[in-house]
């Protein structure tokens, strides 16, 4: 199983991102656009996981206590070196706390936290090759869209299935967040 932990998006935000993506797309843009059903905010990528580690992760994540997370998208941007178009997510204290608690919970199961600072985002498109020129796309996103703020009451454990048309994700477990 290929697993990751993430936060699902509110329907209003998915609709807003869908409209933004449609406005930015163009024929022959050499980007592989992600589908709205795959949009989420990753808390931790776990990767290939065996049954025993899966059971450990689920048990550990059930013990995570964290407040609900207010989520606010800051705008569209690019990770140019990686060739990815993203929607940036504001790193709030609640979001950082949840991410830290999730990564701490998975450590006893053999997973190590990322060495890089946490940069919450939603992946909208990936370049099909190396050295993609994002200048045309950047010109289109000069006027940033406004996104609805929402409160997440849960985080999810997803399984990722790789395929020719991109990855497909299925929810394996749901974990509630405290409402206070």
List the helices and strands and how they pair.
Layout: E1 2-8, H1 11-24, E2 31-33, E3 40-48, H2 51-62, E4 69-71, E5 73-79, E6 84-89, H3 93-106, E7 121-127, H4 135-140, E8 150-152, E9 154-161, E10 168-176
Antiparallel strand pairs: 1-3, 1-9, 2-7, 4-8, 5-6, 6-7, 9-10
Describe the structure.
The chain has 180 residues and is an alpha+beta fold. It has a single domain (2-176), classed as Cyclic Phosphodiesterase, Chain: A (Alpha-Beta Complex). It has helices spanning 11-24, 51-62, 93-106, 135-140; strands at residues 2-8, 31-33, 40-48, 69-71, 73-79, 84-89, 121-127, 150-152, 154-161, 168-176. The strands form three sheets. A four-stranded antiparallel β-sheet has the order 3-1-9-10, with helices on one face. The model has no long low-confidence stretch (mean pLDDT 91).
């Amino acid at each position: 199983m290929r697993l990751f932990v993430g936060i699902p998006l509110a329907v209003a935000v998915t609709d807003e991102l869908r409209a933004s993506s449609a406005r930015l797309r163009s024929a022959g843009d050499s980007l592989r656009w992600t589908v709205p059903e795959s949009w989420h905010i990753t808390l931790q990528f776990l990767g290939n996981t065996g049954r025993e580690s899966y059971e450990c992760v689920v048990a550990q994540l059930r013990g995570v206590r964290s407040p609900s997370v207010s989520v606010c998208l800051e705008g569209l941007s690019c990770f140019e070196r990686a060739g990815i178009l993203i929607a940036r997510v504001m790193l709030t204290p609640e979001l950082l706390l949840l991410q830290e608690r999730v990564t701490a919970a998975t450590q006893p199961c053999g997973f190590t936290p990322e060495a890089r600072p946490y940069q919450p985002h939603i992946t909208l498109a990936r370049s099909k090759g190396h050295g993609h020129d994002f200048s045309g796309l950047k010109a289109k996103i000069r006027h940033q869209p406004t996104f609805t703020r929402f409160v997440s009451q849960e985080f999810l454990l997803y399984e990722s299935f790789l395929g020719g048309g991109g990855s497909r994700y299925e929810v394996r477990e749901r974990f509630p967040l405290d409402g206070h």
